[in-house]
Amino acid sequence: MDSVGRLPGVGPKRAHDLTKLGVDTIEDLVTLWPRRHLDRSVLTPIWQLRAGETVTVRGRVESAQDRGFGRQGQFKIRIADQTGYLDATFFHASWLKSQLVVGREVILSGKVDSFRGRLTMTHPEFEVLESGHEPRLGLIPVYPLAGDLKQRFVQDLQSRVVPRWAPQMGDPLPLSIRQHHDLPDRSWAIAHQHWPLSWDERESSRRRLVFDEFLRMSLAVFWLHRTEPSFRGPVLDGENLLIRRFLRDLPFSLTAGQKTAWKEIRGDLQQPRPMARLLQGDVGSGKTILAALSLLAAVGSGYQAALMAPTELLAEQHYLLLESYLRPLGIELVLVSGRSKSSQVADRLQNLEPLVAVGTQALVSDRLVFARLGLVVVDEQHRFGVRQRALLGEKGLYPHMLVMTATPIPRTLALTVYGDLQVSQIRGLPPGRQPIATWHLPMKDRRDAYMKVREAVKAGHQAYVICPMVEESEESQGKAATMLAEGMAKIPGWRVGLVHGRMSPQEKSSVMEQFRNRHIDVLVGTTILEVGVDVPNATIIVIEGADRFGLAQLHQLRGRVGRGSSSSVCYLLADPATAEGEARLKAMVETQDGLALSERDLEIRGPGEVLGMRQHGVAGFQLADPLHDLVLLGQARDTARHILEHDPHLALEENQGLRGWVMEALAEALPGHVLH
Ligand code: ADP
Ligand code: MG
Q1: Residue 96 domain-assigned (yes or no)
Q2: Domain co-membership, 483 together with 380
Q3: 451 and 420 in one domain?
Q4: Is residue 5 part of a domain?
Q5: For position 616, what pLDDT does the model report?
Q6: Which domain-ending residue is among 426, 460, 490?
Q7: What is the DSSP string of 406-445?
Q8: Whose alpha carbon is nearest atom 5 of ligand 1?
Q9: What digits encode the pLDDT tens for the residues 599-608?
């Protein structure tokens, strides 16, 4: 379709800003959905306002005042219509001065409060009316913005473009399916997602569009699986001699939760069908042991096995740990990292000898060839999904797959993202764990946290200090960490270490080794310490600028301590700048339960973000919220299965539109790969 730059009123600058929103073509623009709608169906005269109601009023700005600054800063206006006055307050928003100018006519929407007998609104939505423009009434779409784009501009653009283009976009969904699920026509749904006449209309439009998103993804997932033969996985013995010896020598016994999960995994590995199982267990619940058991099932049955971690640092940690577990049993291990991708490793993988390869995702996506791959374990890496399995399949490999995560993912969502997936859970933590006392301290009380670090070090324990995320980049965080570590190194009696993403793998692993061997007391680092690192003698963690991290991330970071039997502490240092940041810190202080925290996180950020899924693509949703739209997701999956059962190659005339969707989705998920 045509690029948006060709639309009247859209110059190069605006086209560029639209690109930042993912909008290149007119089709992209038409499917740039409003984030929400403002209800301006009714204008209420001011004399009728009552506290507690959410309303829209129109009036003229009578006065405007900017008071205080910084944290106390307030911008107050008073508006009037023919029937009365209404005050509105905006905090930290003196930039509004230039817009809400005395004499201008405005529309305010929001909740009415009563303050000292006066009616007020706090942070209402507003629109300044330009002379000659009548205000838009009804349900007003509010679009995401980028660059210098103005809401009014995007609204105007959409009101010109949508009515003209939506009808031309066609409906790939055969009429029979639409009727069966009582779904409106796609063009209607698109148009009414932008400009619904009622909330009901918006909801039925959304239902249709969400169904489409789910259907598109489900078709793509089933399409990929369709080419996967159903009985080709290796049969692995989950009770072989190696496993029995490993369990015998383990210094502790498995928890009940670990036992149950292992039984489920073992059962799958013994089937000739490739396992696809998601293992969920809170931080510290002991997932690594289950990885080791699974690897042993493969190696003990004469196969090769791979363990993949999200970062090289973690891959190395796993390698070292597994080495200590598995070498005594006579098992060969190789670490496949950026630097060790030697031809030697490649040769060994190409041989038929059973071994365990540990590395990052590069293990499957690279040109490495496994001669006898029986199992892939993936740790804390939600992005490993349909795409990676498809890549393995292209190499003719159908190993068993175990994905381990501390983030609970609803089963239906897991099904959609990963294809067909079973879910196991490790319930409970190993015995003797103590809750991690968690405190939020304002920056001015930072010293208090470091006094506690001092005490812990004196008592022979170790500490982590995580540096703030300044600009969302490892690099800037690494700089902050370096500075902090340099400062701390001057404190007498502390042996300070530093890790960040820009260090060479050798440097990183040598620091980690020193920390494990207690040659370092305080380890200053970036979020590369987020997952997996396991040093039970570390009992205190200080997270600087904690409000800048996501909830799941904070929980993972906190999970670095509390791994031994001593009590542990976590300090969150922050002066949160947003209500959301504040809410996250509060949740952390209040609960230790990863499940509860993940649910909060999913609520705050939505699953796309939480799971690190891409905005578009096989795993991407724009309108769908898989947590809340579970019923629709189920319907779309059934529909997809049904369609492909009757027309496995989507060859029928009536399915051509759907075929187009699948090809698009796969092209996004597997760029550069030939699809059949
Ligand atoms: P995670 O689930 O976060 O990956 P780990 O596998 O790193 O957790 O385990 C956390 C710690 O608990 C490790 O030090 C591990 O040795 C220990 N651990 C695991 N299982 C048990 C158990 N059954 N009893 C006692 N300690 C255990
Ligand atoms: Mg782990």
Answers
A1: yes
A2: no
A3: no
A4: no
A5: 33
A6: 426
A7: SS---HHHHHHHHSS-EEEEE-S--TT---EEEEEE-GGG
A8: 286
A9: 777 666 655 4
User: Which strand (E) or helix (H) includes residue 199?
Assistant: helix 199-226
Q: 463 and 369: one domain?
A: no
| CATH classification of the domain holding 329 | 3.40.50.300
Q: Which ligand is nearest to the CA of 428?
A: 1
DSSP assignments along 437-503, one per residue: EEEEE-GGGHHHHHHHHHHHHHTT-EEEEEPP-SSS-HHHHHHHHHHHHHHHHTSTT--EEEE-TTS
Mutate to test the pocket of ligand 1, among 247, 278, 285 (most ligand atoms within 8 A of CB): 285
Closest ligand 1 atom number to CA of residue 255: 23
Q: Do 420 and 504 sit in the same domain of this protein?
A: no
**How far apart are the CA of 673 and the centre of ligand 1, in A?**
40
Enclosing domain of residue 85: 42-136
Query: How much is the pLDDT for 366?
Result: 62
Cα(675)–Cα(224) distance, rounded to whole angstroms? 9
Q: How high is the pLDDT of residue 413?
A: 61
State the distance from the centre of ligand 1 to the C-alpha of 532, rounded, in angstroms.
10
Pocket-forming residues, ligand 1, beta carbon under 6 Å? 252, 254-255, 258, 281, 283-289, 430, 534, 536, 563
pLDDT for 278: 86
Segments of the chain scoring below 50 in pLDDT: 608-619, 672-676
> How does pLDDT run across 185-199, given as a tens digit for each residue?
999 999 999 999 999
Q: How many domains does the chain have?
A: 3
Q: What is the pLDDT of residues 420-443, one digit of tens each?
A: 677 888 988 888 888 899 999 999
- Residues 342, 477, single domain; the answer is no
- Centre of ligand 1 from the C-alpha of residue 289, in Å: 7
- pLDDT at 630 (0 to 100): 73
What is the distance in A from the centroid of ligand 1 to the CA of 637?
37
